[in-house]
Structure formats: C-alpha cells, structure tokens
Amino acid sequence: MHRTRFYVDGGWVEPAGSERQPVISPSTEEPVGEVPVAVAADMDRAVAAARAAFDDGPWPRLSPAERADVLARAAELLAKREADIAGITTDEMGCAVSQAPQAQTGLVARTFAFYADLLRTHDFERPVVAGDRAAIVAQVPVGVVAAIVPWNAPVTLAAWKTAPALAAGCTVVVKPPPEAPLSNFVLAEALHEAGVPAGVVNVVPGGREVGQHLVTHPGVDKVAFTGSTEAGKRIMALCADRMTRVSLELGGKSAAVVLDDADLATVIPQIVGAGMHLSGQVCGAQTRVLVPRSRYDEVVDAAAAAASGITVGDPHDPATFVGPLVAERQRTRVEGYVGGAVDDGASVAAGGRRPPHLSRGWYVEPTILAGVDNSMRVAQEEIFGPVLCVIPHDGDDDAVRLANDSRFGLTGGVWTGDPARGLAVARRLRTGVATVNRNSPPFPLVPFGGFKESGMGRELGPEGLQNFLETRTIGVPPSLLEG
Ligand code: NAD
User: Fold this and answer.
1) According to the model, what pLDDT value does residue 412 have?
2) Best mutation site among 35, 152, 214, 332 for ligand 1, i.e. most ligand atoms within 8 A of its Cβ?
C-alpha cells in the first residue's frame, strides 16, 4: 500500500516532486498507505505519453477486433484482482467489504468484457450513396482522454471511462482522487499485463490543482469526469476555452416514489437499505422518499425501524452493512445538514448521531428525517451521507411534480403493487435513469447518467462508446463505394 511511482508510458516512473501523501483509513483514522504527490510536471509527462501513443502509436490504428482481444484479456485479469480491489477500497475509503461487489468490483471486469464484445459487432463506418453523391461516415476516436474519478467508487468509475475510451481507440490519463488513490494502481497493473501498449493508459493520482492542470492541458482532447456538480460546472467552463469535449456524471437528489398501492412492509426496508448503501455516498442514491400523505406516519415508523436495524461498524467485518464516511469533512457536512434540517422544522426519526459504540472513525448512524418539505435545503441539496428525507405526496401527479422539483435529474424509483402503473409514472420522471419496483444497480449493457445538473452524456452501454468518438464524413466518388 506504499506506492512510490506513477504508471506512465507503459512503466512505473519516479514522480517529479519529492512530497508524499498518506492515505488515511476512514474507519481507524490511521494511515494505511502512501502515494507521491503529483505536480504539473507529472501530468505533462502523462499527457505527452498519451499524446504520442495516440498520434504515432499502434492503438488507434489496430482493428476493432485486435483492440477487443486486449480488452477481453484485461477483463479476465481484472476479474482475478477483484479481492485486491475490494480490500484496498475498504482500507482507503471505508466501503463495507460486504458492499464491495456492488460498488467497487462488480462493474470493473464486466465493463471491459462488455466493450470487448461490443467492438466485435460495432460498425465504425457507414457508406452512403445517393445518386451522384457518396460519402463514408466514419466514427473516429476523439483523441487523448482525461478521466477524472471521485473516491466513492474509484476503480468502477475509472473502468466506465477507460474501457469505452480504449474501445474507441483513444488513449487515456486517469486521475484518481487523493482520498482513494491506491486501488487504481491495480487497474494499471492489470491493463499493463493485458498488453495495452505503452502510453495508451497512464495513471497519476492527484488533487484538484493537478486535475485542473490536466483538464486544461492543450494535449487533452476530451475530459470524462465524475464528481460533484460544482466541480463539473467548473470543468465544463474550463473546457469551453479550447472546446475540449466533455462528459459529466455529477450529483443527484433522487426520489423514491411510493404509490398508494405499494406493500410498505417489503418496500420500505428495500428503499432504506439502498439509500444507506456505501453510507449514502452514492450519486444515484434515492434520498427523497415520497410517500402517500395518508400513510405518512406508517412509512416513517417503518423507515426508522429499518434504519435502526442496519449494522454499522468496521467495514472489514463481513457483517457490517454501513461503514464510515470517507473523511472527517464529509461527516461534518452530513451533521451540518441534519442540524440544519432540524432548525428548519424537520425531526429525526432515527439516527442523526455518531454511533456511540464506535470511538474511532468517521461514522454517522443511518438517519431518517421526518416532517421534511421538498423546498427545504435538506431536500434540495445533495448530502452524500446516510440520510433519507421522508416527504408526503397527494397522489401520482403530485408525486411526479415533487420528484421533478429538483435541480438534479439522475435517478428515480417507483414502488407500486401495479408495475404497469409504475412504468407510467417512471416515464414521467425527468431523470436519466428510472426503475420500477427495484433498486437496480447499473449494468454494462445500459447507459447511466443524468438530466439537468446531474450531468451530460452517458456512461456504459453503446451510448458510453459515443462519448469517445467524433464523426467524420469523407465525400468520395460514388464509384469508390459501388460494387
Ligand atoms: P469532487 O467533485 O470534489 O472531485 C471529484 C474528482 O474531481 C476528484 O478526483 C477531484 O480531485 C477532481 N476535481 C475536483 N475539482 C477539479 C477541477 N477543478 N479540475 C479537475 N479535477 C477536479 O467530488 P468528490 O468529493 O470527490 O465526490 C463526491 C461527489 O461526486 C458527489 O457530489 C457525488 O454526487 C458525485 N458523484 C457522482 C457520480 C455520478 O456518476 N453521477 C458518481 C460518484 C460521485
């Protein structure tokens, strides 16, 4: 867990600076590892390697089938490293090990395998002939990609960018976050072993400043970013200057809509469990629970019981469901939101405190807030912690209005005894992802991403490949395409 070098140009290189940064375990508050602190010169070197690999190297010029073979090998190797990735993320960002398959490892190898398969059937070129006019419409790789990932699912979100970027024929500089920089070294090792050519993938963890250096670098053609809406807006503005292509997966304040025919006894524990997954540090978490006014008290009681029954503790213990928050500042932020909600008139139906049995670590109990109005700050801003707000609605139309009354639009869930009615409501949600009677985590075949301030573009699915392609039309004499 003590890393001394960065992965650049197909090998492990010494950092430009001499500073080191500890990685702190959120459960013990003790160092679990160390990484070099990246400076601008490290990013310059990584971008130069990616640029050379794109402009002069073999990768963009390989056939899709040849690239698919490398991605398929990477998928096999990453599948073998899942336990390593799970262990490291548990140490570095506090993910409960029981939750790691869902958040940290389940969509890494599978994403590479999906894009390997897609490459074997995807048409990158389309011939068009219309009378005396003809053209080849080609999808070509966008170029050098800066992949910026947050700490909550660092390898998963790096895979969601790297796999389709490589499939497209791009080269990549991955910047993992300073809070959780270690797990992506495993990604670098696996891609190296899979035979990804030198310079095609480079991994340099670092903070906001070097991140900004990377996204404004003249050698970068495209930024693929996951993180907060605030940082996403800043990056989009920075990218405007050079019209660097940008895709953004940002925050959310998503709603779970419970209709009046739902079976509360089964539905509420599922909603609460999903909302507390990864201590609520999930962009798509459905943290506004919209419930029929006539059943409001019943739901609050059921939600409070479900939250109180959740096992909070050491993330290394397989019995733990909710571990700590990633950092002390994140716990302060969550506590601030809970306190602010109470000041605004809400009440704490469960949790709301640090667990008394845990003397170390940045924990907050699974928390249910009642008496919340959708206009309150706690219902409009992303908390990124284990806090659900229960909000009453007056029927399907009102529930849809409340669900859509948000500057975000990432996910939405509908819970009902009648799936067809649920689907009709789901279609009215202004979100990039919606579900009926399930907390479906993403899967590689379908796109994931948000409306409104939750982002731009989609990751995963065939749509995720489009993030890394430009369209080029080449007009040609029709005779070239005929016969
Ligand atoms: P953050 O926005 O502060 O940082 C995310 C990443 O961007 C980090 O690697 C950080 O170093 C980098 N960064 C920040 N500012 C930058 C800048 N100006 N230029 C270049 N790089 C910059 O977010 P965080 O605290 O790391 O993560 C939590 C946030 O991420 C939450 O708001 C959450 O909703 C969001 N998130 C969204 C998704 C999604 O798929 N929509 C997934 C996970 C997290």
Assistant:
1) 98
2) 152
- For residues 300 and 390, the answer to whether their CB atoms sit within 8 Å is yes
Which helix H or strand E contains 110, and what residues bound it? helix 109-119
Q: Are 289 and 390 in contact (CB under 8 A)?
A: yes
Q: What's the rounded Cα separation, in Å, for the pair 200 and 169?
A: 9
One DSSP character per residue, 63-105 reads: -HHHHHHHHHHHHHHHHHTHHHHHHHHHHHH---GGGHIIIII
Question: What pLDDT does residue 441 have?
Answer: 81
Per the rule left: phi > 0, alpha: psi between -120 and 50, beta: everything else, 254 is: beta
Q: How many CB atoms lie within 10 A of CB 143?
A: 23
What is the structure's pLDDT at 60? 98
Q: What are phi and psi of 403, to 5 degrees?
A: -60, -40
Give me the chain's average pLDDT, please.
Answer: 97
For position 121, what pLDDT does the model report? 97
Q: From CA 320, how far away is CA 328, in angstroms rounded?
A: 20
**What is the spatial distance between Cα 103 and Cα 64, in angstroms, rounded to a whole number?**
29
Helix axes 154-168, 109-119, angle to 10 degrees: 10
Q: Rounded CA gap, 338 and 282, in Å? A: 18
293 contact partners, CB below 8 Å, separation of at least 6:
392, 393, 394
**Ligand 1 binding pocket, CB closer than 6 Å:** 148-152, 175, 177, 207-208, 211-212, 215, 226-228, 231, 234-235, 249-251, 283, 382, 384, 410, 455
Ordered DSSP codes for 315-362: TTSTT-SB---SSHHHHHHHHHHHHHHHHTT-EEEE--S--TT--SS-
| pLDDT less than 50: residues of the chain | none
Q: What is the pTM of this model?
A: 0.97
